[in-house]
Amino acid sequence: MLHCVSVCLHVRLSVSVCLSVYYSDNWYTFTAYSNVMWIHYLIDKLMKTKTSTSTDKSRQQNMLHRQLRYVHRELLDYSSTVQLITDCAFFL
After folding, report:
1. Which of 13, 36, 48, 80 has the fewest CB atoms within 10 Å, i.e. the most exposed one?
2. Cβ–Cβ under 8 Å, residues 92 and 70
3. Which domains does the chain have, with CATH numbers?
């Protein structure tokens, strides 16, 4: 099931559609992976945000963008946000 949701997010379907697939429309069940999907969505939005043209800021923004791309690629491999924060090199 996680692979199905991962594919869903990678083809840029909305996160609500992906969550619907993941939960099989049973929204009363909590799963830690839904938080991972939301973080993936938010990082995707951050990476698509337009930035200013200042050279100092653009260097900092380029570095942050590279770091966000790394987390974005690796994110869906984690089963929960706790695992993400404790195991992902970005947060260490």
Report:
1. 48
2. no
3. 2-91 (1.10.510.10)
- The whole-angstrom separation of Cα 68 and Cα 46 is 8
Copy the structure tokens of residue 12: 């840029």
Taking the C-alpha atoms of residue 5 and residue 12, their distance in angstroms, rounded to an integer, is 11
Q: Is the pLDDT score of 1 beyond 50? A: no
| Residue with token string 């991962």 | 6
DSSP 52: -
Q: Indicate if the alpha-carbon torsion angle 35, 38, 43, 49 is positive or negative.
A: negative
CA 57 to chain centre: 24
Q: Are 38 and 20 in contact (CB under 8 A)?
A: no
Q: For residue 78, what are its two tokens?
A: 């984690």
Question: What length is written for the chain?
Answer: 92
pLDDT digit string, tens, across residues 38-55: 888 888 888 877 665 666
pLDDT at 72: 86
